[in-house]
């Protein structure tokens, strides 16, 4: 009976996997500056914010993040700015088995990227604020480790933070 049930659930798992991939492929050309993608753990809530969409993927978080990063690399108009929870480095393995391995995988995946670490509540406030006017796509993983969400603020790839600062400085009255 258990084997039969497992066989019946395989198509659902494959459908969930292809659904999120299709969703990301369709949405990526539409996403832009101030939109967000969140690669979340299994306990991420189903929020009621109008611009926030939660999609279950069934993947573990490192594999999901790697797939999202690969998709973002092909988006010529966007580049990611990563936010991680400042609580993550302090979560001990004795309380969350596998967290050290996850941190090591995350470091490799985000290496070379623009990254900031803030308390989870502050990042969530940024995402909540963005969801009022912009789109937030939450891709929910099957990972069950705390403080592991990776929040990706999407910014134009063709306009740097330094260019924006120079523009703002030039606009100041003299």
Task: State the main characteristics.
174 residues; alpha/beta; six-stranded mixed sheet
Question: Could you explain the architecture of this structure?
Answer:
This protein has five helices and six strands; from the N terminus they run H-E-E-H-E-H-E-H-E-E-H. It is of the alpha/beta class. It has a single domain, classed as 3-Layer(aba) Sandwich (RbsD-like fold), CATH 3.40.1650. A six-stranded mixed β-sheet has the order 2-5-1-6-3-4, with helices on both faces. The longest helix has 26 residues, at 2-27. It is globular and about 60 Å long. Residues 9-15 have low confidence and may be disordered.
Task: Give the topology, please.
Elements: H1 2-27, E1 36-40, E2 52-56, H2 61-73, E3 78-85, H3 99-110, E4 114-118, H4 120-133, E5 136-140, E6 150-156, H5 161-171
Parallel strand pairs: 1-5, 2-5, 3-4
Antiparallel strand pairs: 1-6, 3-6
Question: What's the CATH H-level homologous superfamily?
Answer: RbsD-like domain
What is the N-to-C order of secondary-structure elements (H for helix, E for strand)? HEEHEHEHEEH
Shape: globular
Cα gyration radius (Å): 18 Å
Low-confidence stretches: 9-15
Query: Helical proportion?
Result: 40-55%
Number of domains: 1
Strand content: 15-25%
CATH level 3 topology: RbsD-like fold
Distance between the termini: 78 Å
Number of strands: 6
Average pLDDT figure: 91
> Which class do the helix and strand fractions yield?
alpha/beta
